[in-house]
Amino acid sequence: MLTTAARLSRRSLLQQTASLAAGFGVVRLLQGQSAKARRVLALIGDRYHNSDYIRVALTKMFDGQGVTVDYTINYWQLSRDLLRNYQLFLCLRDGMIWPDGYLGPDAYTAYEHDLENKEAFPESKPQSWLTEEQALALKEFVTAGNGFYSLHNNSHVSLSSKTYRDVQGGAYIGHPPLRPFKVRVVNSNHPITQGIKDFIVNDEQHYVEYDKDRKYVLLEAENIDELNFEKYGPKSLAGWAYDYGQGRVVFTSVGHTIHALWAPEYVKVQRRAVQWLLKEI
Predict the structure, then answer these.
(1) Which residues contact 206 (CB under 8 A, 6 or more apart)?
(2) In angstroms, what CA-CA distances link 226 with 32, 200, 212?
(3) How many other CB atoms are found less than 10 A from the CB of residue 127?
(4) CB-count exposure of residue 213 (10 Å: 0-12, 13-18, 19+)
């Protein structure tokens, strides 16, 4: 007959085995995460931004931060029920889906113009994926005290929803082709940017329309060769951070390539953004 201690030990072993079978997130919890480990939901990937390279690129942001990160491409699953399991929502994807298909993942407009048999390919017609219910779910999530990190082209989602835009802080205008530009810190007193040096990246310089108070702006980008983008000149806003309800929001615009996401000073910005959003700094 098993003793009480033996029965308890066997029960504990069975419980751990069942937990291990439940999923990788649980495995990580058992490998040193506390029972109150913070969880991040990262919605990534679109036609022009492959989800695999984004996942790889973001590892430097999350490594050693003591968080469990769940990556997903399933935009249709974003909901109140899903978000309640997390303390931070990160989004690096635009607002478009292409139900009727498109020429290719990297086929920009210039590619399509040069096709010899255009009639053989479907016309690319994007639709917005975000629903108002999803936008309200995000607003409630942040207002209740959680964090929202909007990265790179995610400002494009704001074009389809006033609610989303109110939380995110602005909306996408456009960008020139990949080119070098400098990112400057314009508020060195904020916990995210304290001690951060200006840095140069070769990336898409995203131009955004910003809706909030200028005092929340942290970063500014400038093409130092004085190359303009349309009527907007060589400068663009590149990052901001503010409280929203009881929660917090951060937007940073750099992020089309791994090389840009892994620029050492920018990695520091990203890591501190996560810490600030989780109210650790």
Answers:
(1) 152, 153, 155, 172, 173, 174, 175, 236, 238, 253
(2) 50, 14, 27
(3) 11
(4) exposed
Query: Using an 8 Å Cβ cutoff, are 108 and 210 in contact?
Result: no
**Which domains does the chain carry?**
37-95+130-277 (3.40.50.880)
Residue whose structure tokens are 């699953």: 77
Whether 203 contacts 181, CB under 8 Å: yes
What are the tokens at 99? 């139900």
How far apart (Å, rounded) are the C-alpha atoms in residues 27 and 23?
A: 7
Cα–Cα distance for residue pair 273/280, rounded to 1 Å:
10
As a whole number of Å, the CA-based R_g of the chain is: 21
Q: Are 237 and 253 in contact (CB under 8 A)?
A: yes
At 169-218, the pLDDT tens digits run 999 999 999 999 999 999 999 999 999 999 999 999 999 999 999 999 99
Q: What is the DSSP letter of 160?
A: G
Q: pTM value?
A: 0.85
